[in-house]
Structures are given as structure tokens and as C-alpha cells.
Amino acid sequence: MPKQRVTIVLPPDLWAKTQQVARERRTSASEYIARALQEMISREGQEARLRAVREIAAMNLPIATPEELRREAAERYESALSERVAP
Q1: If phi over 0 gives left and psi between -120 and 50 gives alpha, with beta otherwise, what is residue 27?
Q2: Closest C-alpha among 33, 56, 52, 34 to residue 44
Q3: Is a pLDDT exceeding 90 seen at residue 82?
Q4: pTM to 2 decimals?
Q5: Quick check: 48 and 41 in contact, CB under 8 A?
Q6: 32 near 22, Cβ under 8 Å?
Q7: How far apart are CA 52 and CA 69, in angstroms?
Q8: Handedness of CA 49, 55, 61, 65 (dihedral sign)
Q9: How confident is the model over 1-16, as pLDDT tens digits?
Q10: What is the C-alpha to C-alpha distance for residues 64 and 74, in angstroms, rounded to an integer?
């Protein structure tokens, strides 16, 4: 995948730590920063999905048990079949 060259400004201590960690992981500082950014973006997406799930759960909507869902599906299936067969 083509890459885009960017310029970022970091405090000297953060740049030094970035270089140190990248060396320890046997990668370039550029690759280390790119991976860190990708992880942050992914985490933000996961957090947004989790917030949405929590909001839905807080709505206290009636939720059927798996058995109730199976029974309802079977009833609707049987009903649809009987409507097809009826003259």
C-alpha cells in the first residue's frame, strides 16, 4: 500500500522514548508510530461500538430467550406454509 509522508512535532523526550521502543521492537520509529496510531483508531472504534451496546442495553427492551425465538420462528414458518397450501 502506498504510504504518505507526514511531519509531526514531538517533545524531545517523547521522540527519544519512541526511538528507544522502536529499536527494542526491531522496527523503525515510523513503523512504530504508524502501528500505534492504527491501534488507537481501532480502539476508538471498539469503544464507540461498546458505548452503543451499553446505550441499547440501558433501554431495557424486551428480549426473548433463544427458546422463545425458536418457537416464534417455527410458528411463523408453519403459518407461512399453511398460507401457501391454502386454496
Answers
A1: beta
A2: 52
A3: no
A4: 0.57
A5: no
A6: yes
A7: 23
A8: positive
A9: 788 999 999 999 999 9
A10: 14
Chain length of the chain: 87
CB atoms within 10 A of CB 8: 7
Distance between CA atoms of 31 and 36, rounded to whole angstroms?
9
Surface-to-core class of residue 60, CB atoms within 10 Å of its CB (0-12 exposed, 13-18 middle, 19+ buried): exposed
Q: b vs e for 11-23, b when ≥16 Cβ sit within 10 Å of the residue's Cβ?
A: eeeeeeebeeebe
Radius of gyration over alpha carbons of the chain, in Å? Answer: 27
Please compute the mean of the pLDDT values over residues 39-67 and round it to a whole number: 90
C-alpha 1/C-alpha 6 separation (Å) is 16
